[in-house]
């Protein structure tokens, strides 16, 4: 990668990590924590950093994907003028390094005839991150998305108190000391 591209990528990552740090400070200095937890519940498979970035940029986001994923996997098109949500994505790369050769049986360095460690060239994967753009479903249009399979519960439960009492009678658990009984 040439120097200019490397500097640009570094500055984009630095910019977004600075934004992330500011967001964490603001989160705990305000009443936004409950809203953050709501966002967190929607994106449980994302890192805490990316959840924070999503929360800062689009707190009402509910389902996100990249431009191409919306188009090819979901049959949806991102609306013209939609503002991307910038998050961090892993961008591992491989480098060749020279290191001491280790005997796998003894876990000690292999030495040459002069007693110096023997060097070997190995390829090592390094972890890095890049900034990627994703879009919320609200910024797309197209094919209907399938439901996740769990319909939202609504309505009332007849004889709720009887149902809850029966459930409590079935689920009696000793507490950790074993003295008192608790319901969970």
Strand order of the largest sheet: 1-6-3
Q: What string, H for helix and E for strand, traces the elements in order?
A: HHHEHEEEEEEHEE
**Topology, number of strands:** 9
Low-confidence stretches: 174-184
Distance between the termini: 57 Å
Helix fraction bin: 25-40%
Largest sheet, described in full?
A: 3 strands, antiparallel
**Coarse structural class:** alpha+beta
Average per-residue pLDDT, rounded, comes to: 83
Give me the Rg, rounded: 26 Å
The fraction of residues in strands falls at 15-25%
Shape summary = extended
Oligomeric nature of the chains: single chain
Quickly count the helices: 5
Structural account:
The protein has 184 residues and is α+β, with helices and mostly antiparallel strands. Helices cover 34% and strands 24% of the residues. The protein has helices at residues 3-28, 33-42, 48-57, 67-72, 160-170; strands spanning 64-66, 76-78, 85-90, 93-100, 119-126, 129-136, 140-142, 172-174, 181-183. The strands form four sheets. The protein has a three-stranded antiparallel β-sheet with strand order 1-6-3. A two-stranded antiparallel sheet has the order 2-7. It has a two-stranded antiparallel sheet with strand order 4-5. A hairpin with a 6-residue loop joins strand 8 and strand 9 (181-183). Helix 1 crosses helix 3 (48-57) and helix 2 (33-42) crosses helix 3. It is extended.
């Amino acid at each position: 990668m040439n120097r200019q591209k490397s500097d640009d990528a570094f500055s984009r990552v630095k910019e977004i990590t600075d934004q992330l740090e500011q967001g964490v400070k603001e989160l705990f200095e305000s009443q936004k924590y409950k809203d953050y937890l709501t966002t967190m519940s929607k994106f449980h498979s994302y890192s805490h950093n990316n959840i924070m970035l999503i929360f800062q940029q689009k707190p009402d986001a509910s389902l996100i994907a990249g431009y191409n994923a919306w188009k090819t996997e979901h049959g949806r098109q991102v609306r013209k003028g939609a503002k991307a949500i910038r998050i961090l994505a892993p961008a591992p790369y491989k480098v060749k390094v020279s290191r001491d050769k280790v005997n796998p049986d003894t876990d000690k360095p292999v030495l040459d005839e002069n007693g110096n460690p023997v060097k070997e060239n190995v390829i090592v994967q390094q972890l890095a991150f890049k900034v990627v753009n994703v879009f919320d479903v609200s910024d797309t249009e197209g094919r209907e998305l399938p439901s996740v399979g769990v319909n939202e519960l609504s309505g009332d439960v007849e004889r709720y108190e009887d149902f809850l009492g029966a459930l409590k009678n079935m689920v009696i658990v000793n507490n950790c000391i074993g003295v008192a009984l608790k319901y969970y």
